[in-house]
Design goal:
The structure holds 2 protein chains of 2 kinds.
Chain A lengths: L5 H4 E2 L4 E3 L6 H12 L4 E5 L8 E7 L2 E7 L5 E5 L14 E3 L2 E3 L6 E3 L4 E3 L23 E5 L2 E5 L7 H5 L2 H11 L4 E3 L4 E5 L3 H9 L5 H4 L12 H10 L4 E5 L5 E6 L4 H12 L1 H17 L1 H6 L4 E4 L3 E4 L7 E8 L5 E10 L4 H13 L8 H13 L4 H5 L1 E3 L18 E4 L4 H15 L18
Antiparallel strand pairs in A: 1-2, 2-21, 3-12, 4-5, 4-7, 5-6, 8-9, 9-10, 11-12, 13-20, 14-20, 15-16, 15-22, 16-17, 17-18, 18-19, 19-20
Helix pairs in contact in A: 7-8, 8-9
Chain B lengths: L3 H19 L3 H5 L8 E4 L18 E5 L1 H11 L12 E13 L8 E13 L3 E16 L2 E11 L13
Parallel strand pairs in B: 1-6
Antiparallel strand pairs in B: 1-2, 3-4, 4-5, 5-6
Classes of the chains: A alpha+beta, B alpha+beta.
């Protein structure tokens, strides 16, 4: 038996990370315990299940969960597995139900998770089975932030608010800017990637470095969603972007801190008509009433909520993109993604949102597939005996100074194009895996067996 | 009842069309669509009833393109940085169960054509993916051939085997 310490494989002071962490099955098993069973994980948005009995499904790590609004209006979440023999209780993606009968032996659960009926209760269990202790296994902690529902398997975990930390200042921009609240467009795009989940998460947490090359085929296209931004970004070349690393391994990139985001927005709105111009001004005014610093930031634009929930938010006129990189073994991800708009956005905005989403960072969009190609080939590079002995290079801007002069803006600000956000993502990851800062008190150090 | 001649003509059209895709002749393929065409691929979900599983207009689609965006996709694929398809995948298209009917509505002579579709994608060394579904096309007679006035691709997979870099 040999303990693998993550701080030996992840040497951030040198900007080096062993390829082994993207492939090793033992490390992956430890991740399910020490990352996915301890962190707050995104489960869905309240707007997907507005009515009593509405349910949707998801995964927390590899554990299937059922998110279900009770007849009392309360949202609860459970392991989607019968307590008798483990059969999946709910086998549809979403819908409305007041109870689920397990297909195997018929144990039936109500939508507070309570075990209601058990066949042969009297003659088989002699009326003695304690139904109260055999209800659906609940997700230990459940909380919402601005309608975004998160769950945590660790009963002793810090609160969701503390976990999000200073990311909340940014989420508030997206949430408060939306008129009538954020509404998820029904339906999810789902596809498989033969890659490691961390490659996808780190791509969103701060990798603006890849945009010019990986997505270089897109920026010159005569495509509506890219035009106004391009006119300003690439034509006049006057915008200055920043990366911002946030608490607990969260990070977002491509921020504009000096207020020009609203100019881009106004240019796009003008093309869409007076109603949309008015809408944008209202969005902006809402942010100004929050704070001028938040109004100047205006949009997130893209980043990752640790560990595996990524967000795209470039504009009130473009769909918000929500991306979940669900692990299915060290070499496979199931990507689940949703689009969202403001509930009270003008119809002209809503009409293009679902289409724009599908055309951008999406299953068949112009951005998503080039990322898939990267995720898959990067992961494959970690499989070989020699490849595993090598490190990946995370030295971009290593030793660079934090940007100063934006005192009202929380987080560690880096000059645009850096790998500071990625380094901080992996620092958080290593801490959790090694039982250090941020890990739960009852945490046990992962014991990773080395064979031979 | 569709005449054997018309059935044959439609089949030959569909076979030629998918060969263009397999051979990467995308510009030629684009010319097969009307200017006001719509190319749609709905998502699929696992739902209690068969009807609900095919998600409609109010749902997020995989693809909802007009001709301009189809052109943009082709333009992108020709760019030297579109590495999701460079080097290109090896593709094989199988079209079967072709049913031809006079269209309800639409222009005079329009046809509603249904077929089953199986697409095999082999990429780089090891990537092998299979997409399976059906297509519903509205074909419009044009000279000796047809134009595609609309296409709906309904894949059977709710979880797609990979992100989509190809046309169906």
């Amino acid at each position: 038996m040999l303990d693998i310490r993550m701080d030996e494989l992840i040497r951030l002071d040198e900007g080096l990370i062993s390829r082994r962490i993207f492939f090793d099955p033992e490390i992956y098993r430890a991740e399910l315990d020490h990352v996915f069973a301890r962190c707050w994980l995104y489960l869905g948005h309240e707007s997907e299940i507005p009515n009593p009995g509405d349910y949707t499904t998801n995964y927390m790590g590899e554990d299937p969960v059922l998110i279900w609004r009770g007849m009392d209006g309360e949202i609860r979440a459970f392991l989607n597995s019968c307590r008798h023999r483990g059969m999946r209780v709910c086998r549809t993606d979403s819908g409305n139900a007041h109870q689920f009968a397990c297909p195997f032996h018929g144990w039936t659960y109500g939508n507070s998770g309570e075990l209601k009926t058990v066949p042969n209760f009297d003659d088989g269990y002699f009326g003695d089975l304690d139904k109260d202790s055999w209800g659906l296994h609940p997700v230990s902690r459940l909380a919402s932030y601005g309608g975004f529902i998160f769950g945590n398997w660790d009963a002793g975990a810090e609160s969701l608010d503390d976990y999000l930390g200073n990311l909340r200042w940014y989420l508030d921009i997206m949430i408060e800017r939306s008129i009538g609240g954020i509404e998820v467009i029904p339906g999810q795009q789902r596809y498989s990637v033969d890659g490691n989940w961390k490659i996808a998460s780190e791509n969103f947490v701060g990798d603006s470095y890849h945009l010019t090359h990986s997505h270089g085929s897109c920026y010159g296209l005569p495509v509506r969603m890219l035009n106004p931004a391009n006119a300003i970004t690439y034509g006049r070349n006057k915008l200055t972007y920043y990366d911002i690393a946030l608490d607990n391994g969260h990070g977002f990139t491509q921020f504009i801190l000096t207020g020009e985001r609203i100019e881009v927005e106004r240019a796009l709105a003008k093309e869409m008509g007076p109603e949309v111009v008015e809408y944008v001004e209202e969005c902006y005014a809402r942010l100004v009433s929050l704070s001028q610093a938040q109004a100047d930031v205006y949009a997130l634009p893209f980043g990752n909520v640790f560990p595996n929930f990524s967000i795209n938010d470039f504009s009130a006129l473009r769909p918000i993109g929500l991306y979940l990189w669900t692990p299915k073994g060290p070499g496979r991800i199931e990507v689940w993604q949703w689009g969202a708009t403001d509930r009270d956005a003008p119809q002209a905005v809503k009409d293009v949102a679902r289409i724009d989403f599908a055309r951008g960072q999406a299953t068949a969009g112009i951005f998503g597939p080039d990322d898939t190609e990267n995720f898959e080939q990067v992961t494959q590079s970690t499989a070989g005996a020699v490849g595993q002995r090598l490190d990946f290079n995370y030295q971009l801007t290593l030793g660079g100074k934090a940007v100063e002069g934006f005192e009202d803006v929380p987080g560690h600000i880096s000059n645009y194009i850096s790998e500071e956000n990625q380094r901080r993502f992996y620092r958080r990851y290593a801490n959790l895996m090694d039982g250090g800062e941020g890990a739960h008190q009852t945490y046990e150090k992962p014991r990773l067996a080395a064979h031979g | 009842m569709t005449s054997p001649d018309l059935q044959h003509k439609v089949e030959q059209f569909l076979f030629r069309e998918v060969r263009m895709l397999a051979e990467g002749r995308f510009e030629e393929w684009l010319d097969l669509f009307t200017e006001d065409t719509r190319y749609l691929m709905p998502i699929r979900e696992t739902t209690a009833t068969r009807e609900d599983s095919e998600r409609g207009e109010e749902f997020l689609p995989h693809v909802d393109d007009d001709k301009d965006f189809m052109r943009a996709r082709v333009q992108r694929l020709r760019h030297h940085l579109a590495h999701a398809e460079q080097p290109p995948s090896r593709l094989r298209y199988f079209v079967s169960n072709i049913e031809v009917e006079d269209a309800e509505g639409g222009e005079k002579g329009d046809l509603d054509v249904r077929c089953n579709l199986l697409v095999y994608q082999s990429r780089l060394e090891r990537t092998e993916k299979i997409f399976v579904g059906r297509r519903e096309d509205r074909l419009r007679p044009e000279k000796d051939s047809f134009l595609i006035a609309s296409r709906t691709v309904v894949l059977d997979q709710s979880l797609l085997p990979r992100s989509i870099t190809i046309f169906f």
